[in-house]
């Protein structure tokens, strides 16, 4: 631990502190791990742009059972290769407690997705292992429900929890996939010491809206950001419309440095 409330994650490149008293930490990468070349290339590009963590789904919670479900265990091996190639820490989602041990072998932070925010048996299990946990807000979860979900992890013995806002269900889905609730920034700060992450990619669903919301999140005091980046968004197997190209991500990182406390 660093200062009270920080989450300190060890990565191949050294410890990364996530919290109020540290520069903004950026997690970047594709929605899904598609093949070795794309994940290693993305890792190198986002690392060069200044990201601290590589994200990428191996097990994907898709609305339709006929949509791409992720490459599973083989994608974990590709994440390990990208970790070796870049030195970046890895963040990937666990959907089923049966996969937790093998995910935790590769992941530096284990993600619990929006759809599992109140999967209490899964929360107890990620709480009983020692990798830090990224807990995304359920798509219709109140702040109280979200904090109580985090409490399950803390109560099971794991104090390293990061809260990630990823947009809430909205009545108007014509122009944005979700409503990114940036008001959680001051609200959570007043209620908890846990570090806060904002995910404007899932929060808006549109790549063209991501930079403005990333900057707003930094201005609002976020501790970290999650940004989806894909080498060829038009060909992505999931979430292409909200994914930045590596070039656009590189530009965004420079824009974020101007706003404030970034990287
Ligand atoms: C993700 O991060 O890839 C994801 C599925 O996000 P969420 O759980 O917020 O929908
Ligand atoms: Mn996604």
Describe this structure in words.
Its EC number is 2.5.1.54. GO terms for molecular function: 3-deoxy-7-phosphoheptulonate synthase activity. The protein has 263 residues and is an alpha/beta fold. The chain has nine helices and ten strands. The protein has one domain (7-259): TIM Barrel (Alpha-Beta Barrel), CATH 3.20.20. Strands 3-4-5-6-7-8-9-10 form an eight-stranded parallel β-barrel, surrounded by seven helices. Helix 4 crosses helix 5. The protein binds phosphoenolpyruvate and manganese (II) ion.
Query: Quick one: overall form?
Result: globular
Number of strands: 10
Radius of gyration: 16 Å
Hetero ligands: phosphoenolpyruvate, manganese (II) ion
CATH class: Alpha Beta
Which stretches are poorly predicted, pLDDT < 50 over at least 5 residues? none
- What's the pLDDT, averaged over the residues? 96
Strand order of the largest sheet: 3-4-5-6-7-8-9-10
**SS field, number of helical segments:** 9
> How far from one another are the termini?
20 Å
Q: Which homologous superfamily in CATH is the superfamily?
A: Aldolase class I
Helix content bin:
25-40%
Strand content: 15-25%
Number of domains: 1
Largest sheet: 8 strands, parallel, barrel
Per the CATH scheme, the topology name is TIM Barrel
| Order of secondary-structure elements | EEEHEHEHEHEHEHEHHEH
CATH 2nd-level architecture: Alpha-Beta Barrel
Helix/strand class: alpha/beta
């Amino acid at each position: 631990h660093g200062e009270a409330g920080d989450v300190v994650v060890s990565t191949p490149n050294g410890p990364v502190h996530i919290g109020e008293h540290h520069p903004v930490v950026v997690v970047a990468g594709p929605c899904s791990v598609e093949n070795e070349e794309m994940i290693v290339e993305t890792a190198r590009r986002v690392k060069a742009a200044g990201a601290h963590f590589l994200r990428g789904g191996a097990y994907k919670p898709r609305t339709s059972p006929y949509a791409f479900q992720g490459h599973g265990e083989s994608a974990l091996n590709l994440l390990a290769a990208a970790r070796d190639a870049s030195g970046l820490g890895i963040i990937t989602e666990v959907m089923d407690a049966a996969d937790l041990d093998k995910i935790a072998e590769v992941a530096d932070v284990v993600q619990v997705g929006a759809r599992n925010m109140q999967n209490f048996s899964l929360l107890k299990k990620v709480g009983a292992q020692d990798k830090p946990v990224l807990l995304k807000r359920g798509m219709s979860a109140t702040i109280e429900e979200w904090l109580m979900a985090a409490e399950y992890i803390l109560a099971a013995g794991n104090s390293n929890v990061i809260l990630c806002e990823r947009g809430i269900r909205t009545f108007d889905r014509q122009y944005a996939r979700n409503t990114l609730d940036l008001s959680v920034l001051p609200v959570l700060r007043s209620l908890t010491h846990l570090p806060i992450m904002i995910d404007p990619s899932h929060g808006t669903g549109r790549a063209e809206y991501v930079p403005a919301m990333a900057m707003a999140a930094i201005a609002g005091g976020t501790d970290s950001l999650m940004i989806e980046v894909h080498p060829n968004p038009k060909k992505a197997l999931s979430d292409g419309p909200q994914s930045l190209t590596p070039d656009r991500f590189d530009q965004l990182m420079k824009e974020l440095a101007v706003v404030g406390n970034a990287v």
